[in-house]
Amino acid sequence: MSAPTPRAYPALASPSPVPRGARTVFAHRGASALAPENTLAAFRRAAAEGAAWIELDVDVISDGTVIVIHDSRLDRTTNRSGSYYDLTAADLAQVDAGSWFADAEGAHPYAGESLPTLRAALDVVAQTGMNVNVELKSCEAGAQACRRLADGVAELLDAHAERGGKEVLVSSFNPLLLERMRVRREGTDLALLTDSRMLGDDWRSYVENLGAIAVNPGDEGLERSRVEEIRELGYGVNVWTVNSYERAEELFSWGVSGIFTDRVHRLGPLAGER
Question: DSSP label at 270?
Fold first, then answer.
């Protein structure tokens, strides 16, 4: 019997393989079921709930300050409306990012919580000893803003590492921003964010070109066979956003390496090696 023909383009294993049995629970935008998302209060609450990892979203404003926010507008999570790209650091203290959040009793205990900078968020991460996944938003202000975002994050992560900060993962839906980060800050662990319905056979081309260590797909539409394919090559699979304990257990049984959850106080105990 003749030997099998070698593949013309053999798959490349992950540059930093994620072990089988790894279970990471990321506090999505902090403990966002218990405090207003992407605020220092949410990050501190995640630490208090025992989270080892938080996830946060970042974009850049007009003076180059990197801020922590998910949306490209202020409307949903602050007392202001419209775009934030024209703001400066001096404006941030006037942006209330906590009043919109109501607790189980209908009270608003986080009124006056300001819109944080990434610098301030990393201070909390360092003080609490957590690890952090920084998601670079796709940035709607054009190429110059995108470059300032990636470069600004790189500088802040350099400073974070110099003072003993723990593990960092940088993710984005925008592969151009990940490529900028790869060049600007060599050795940074990168993850490609994707909607599972868009997670096609070209996933390997993206992660190999980027030198990424993980794919972070959405839960909706995710197939077990795709998870197994990605994990077989040692890449991590971190799934967003999972708030059901039963679904989290099922995904971990498929071999996913991590989940993002708003309910870290409920799903946090699933973390660890199995």
Answer: G
Tokens of 221: 């539409």
CATH 3.90.550.10 is the classification of domain 24-76+117-270: no
pTM of the entire structure?
Answer: 0.96
Neighbours of 76 (CB within 10 A): 11
Distance in angstroms (rounded) separating the CA atoms of residues 161 and 95: 29
DSSP notation for 30-79: TTTTTS-TTSHHHHHHHHHTT-SEEEEEEEE-TTS-EEE-SSSBSTTTSS
b vs e for 202-213, b when ≥16 Cβ sit within 10 Å of the residue's Cβ? ebbebbbebbbb
CA distance 207 to 213: 7
Kindly list the domain boundaries of the chain, sorted by start residue.
24-76+117-270
Per-residue pLDDT of the chain (274 residues; tens, 9 = 90+): 555 556 788 888 898 999 999 899 999 999 999 999 999 999 999 999 999 999 999 999 999 999 999 999 999 999 999 999 999 999 999 999 999 999 999 999 999 999 999 999 999 999 999 999 999 999 999 999 999 999 999 999 999 999 999 999 999 999 999 999 999 999 999 999 999 988 999 999 999 999 999 999 999 999 999 999 999 999 999 999 999 999 999 999 999 999 999 999 999 999 997 7
Catalytic residue status for 70: yes
Strands 131-136 and 236-239: unpaired
Annotated active-site residue 108? The verdict is: no
Parallel, antiparallel, or unpaired: how do β-strands 66-68 and 53-60 relate? antiparallel
